[in-house]
Specification:
CATH architecture: Roll
CATH superfamily: Hcp1-like
Strand order of the largest sheet: 2-1-5-6-7-4-3
Number of domains: 1
Mean pLDDT: 95
Largest sheet: 7 strands, antiparallel
Helix content: under 10%
Radius of gyration: 20 Å
Number of strands: 7
CATH class: Mainly Beta
Strand content: over 45%
Length: about 140
């Protein structure tokens, strides 16, 4: 068995665009956990067997919608607070890039996202923590 080539978590980078021209993408500082998920919605149809109508019916599925979410958590860095607040308050979605940096070069996914969750918590004897979630607004693809 060949050993797989693994990647460190620091090789997953989330960058939020500022909407400018040219657009500047900024990675929020101190996010220690990041997640990039894609999902597909399906419509289900029960299809009977024409040759054996008494047989159990099989469910067939048709892919109907695609969606993506990004989440992250970590220590709140003062340098990123304005970025979070602006993206959360903005009525329009923002361009976001998710990059996986691996040995043959980076793979970057790009699309528009709404920052839908911004949780900031803190304990008396600890550091302030942040949790964010972004939901796609349209197509997300691999950047050229």
């Amino acid at each position: 068995m060949a050993k797989p080539t693994t990647l460190r978590g620091s090789k997953l980078l989330v960058k939020i665009g500022d909407g400018g021209s040219p657009e500047v993408f900024t990675a929020p500082c101190a996010l220690t956990t990041k997640s990039f998920g894609r999902s597909a919605g399906v419509n289900e149809f029960n299809v009977a067997d024409c040759d054996d109508p008494d047989a159990p019916i099989w469910t067939e599925r048709v892919k109907s919608a695609l969606s993506s979410t990004i989440s992250g958590s970590g220590t709140l860095a003062q340098e990123s607070l304005d970025l979070y607040e602006a993206a959360y308050s903005d009525q329009d979605s923002r361009n976001v890039q998710v990059t996986i940096d691996y040995s043959v070069g980076p793979r970057t996914y790009e699309g528009k996202y709404h920052l839908t969750t911004l949780n900031i918590t803190g304990e008396q004897d600890g550091l302030i923590q942040v949790e964010i979630e972004l939901q796609s607004d349209g197509a997300v693809g691999i950047a050229a």
